[in-house]
Amino acid sequence: MTDKRELLILGGGLVGMTLALAAARQGMSSHVVDRADPAELTAEGFDGRASAISTASWNLFTNIGIADALEPFGCPIASIAVTDGMKPGRLDFQPEPHEGSLGRMFANQQLRLALFEAAAKEPLISWHSRANVVSRTRGEHGVSAMLEDGTKLEASLMVAAEGRQSPTRDEAGIAIAKWDYSHRAMIASLTHEKPHGNVAWEIFYPAGPFALLPLLDDDQGRHRSALVWTVSEDDAAGVLALSDRAFTAEVAKRMHGVFGAIEKHGKVMSYPLGFHHTARITAQRLALVGDSAHGIHPIAGQGLNLGLRDVGTLVEVLAEGMRLGLDPGDAQLLTRYENWRGLDSFTVALATDGLTRLFGIPGKAPSIIRRMGMAAVQRTPALKRWFMDEARGVSGKMPELLKG
Hints:
The protein is an alpha+beta fold. Helix content is 35%, strand content 30%.
């Protein structure tokens, strides 16, 4: 007998697996297909990145039942300091005490562990790891994917959650606008003499943003932060070739002693930075989520959160449609998802691109203008509130799963 499910999710990363769990909490079954081995994805040192989980995304994790498993590993972000090269004119974002934190920092490894452990226990999720898709079919009455081992998976709706190089998106012929920033993000873990005070720093230099993101102290009580240092592609090889001592010296120079003496731990990882945004996020019995639909600069730490907003919206649209007796692949439901998510994701993508370009203009005059603008925002509570709400993901029309 054919095991036809509501969803066929191609890509079992952070966004794809969150979608499967969120759908299961609404009674929807899914096939989740991923090429990777979960043991490799959660291995120590596989991915040194950390992610800022916004308030809305944390609500989603709470509502799908993984927040308790994650809670001990998250470092709250109490405030965000934004500065143009550490010159006067700093901008601070700090919510009111009753509003809680601006978000939480988690190692990607820990996010994967929590998601994978929950998925392994969920009977509505059929998880196909270490599996290659050799063909995809989308028809009037359903969708299917043929795996390399001959297994055929069937569902009502196909969801592409494969990331920036999504073959499902490309095969569907969905147009995409994209460009390369000619930058690389250098990712490293730092320990430092002074506590970070749960402050996330975004220091803008003409060569690119330099972010220090708070992490929990390690088991030896050392203060820790995650570094995301954007460098020109032309300089990337040289930076990666630096000795630990030389790399630490370059980082310390850009930190201006804000955390005192620092040390680098583990290896430095690097990732190319680019922008892409699809012309649409749906097609016949197909929905795109996460980086399959939009890839943005990490300047504001919104990439994963944008994908989690896709998840919350898609699940709400499908659940409401199914309560009315509609098929998950119904064109009306996909149109609603398109209309709800299309503008928001495009607006965030353009904003991050604009910030990247604005702060990348060298020279004293542009720096003075930027700092005057930041000072104006600092003195305008309504503007600061708007920026904080955007950072926390609580602005605009929110799906129920992202509400507290």
